[in-house]
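We both want to read discrete structure tokens more fluently, so let's practise on a single case. Would you supply a protein for us yourself, any chain you care to pick? Would you write everything just below, so we can both look at the same thing?
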Amino acid sequence: MTSLAGNTGSLTGNEHLPPSIRKNDRKAKWIIILFSLVVFAAIVVLGRTRLNVNPGFNIHLFAGANAVINSMVSLLLIGGLLAVKKRRFLLHKRIMFSALFLSVLFLLSYICHHLFAEETKFGGEGMIRTVYYVILITHIFLAAVILPFILFTAYRALIAEWPQHTKLARITWPVWLYVSVTGVVVYLMISPYYT
């Protein structure tokens, strides 16, 4: 028998949470792939589109918001790992879905920033320029490929397939954390060159 312990959201014993949705791998696969492709296409297309509109405020506030959101996602990912290691599965679920929600907000803010802002060139020289581009390229590449892995990992948790969820999470979690942390690093390195 499973019992919830107060407001902590932990389960006693070795039980995991029950399924939240009914298993339908075929439907989930198509939804996840389609959603991931639409997001990727939107970022590529909208990243090349500029709206010549003055929103009435410094457009780089979106970039600052992105850095704050990425910082929060990084903290939530660490908190989610700590919660699951302490076997506080309900708390882990809440933290991880909060990270997913913030990632959606990040995506919207990211698109807004790129729609309104001109491209900013990194002004550093020498070794710092190399470091910046290595971080930027790995960040962009991993950000482009991680979304379906995150969604498949979440799906395995929602249908309570814990061994598969854990196996995917061992790949997804560190990559997601790297992407969120390097997003902040990229912002800190490029922000002095915003005009």
Remarks:
- Residues 103 and 135 are 20 Å apart (CA to CA).
- Strands lie at 4-5, 10-11.
- The first strand starts at residue 4 and ends at 5.
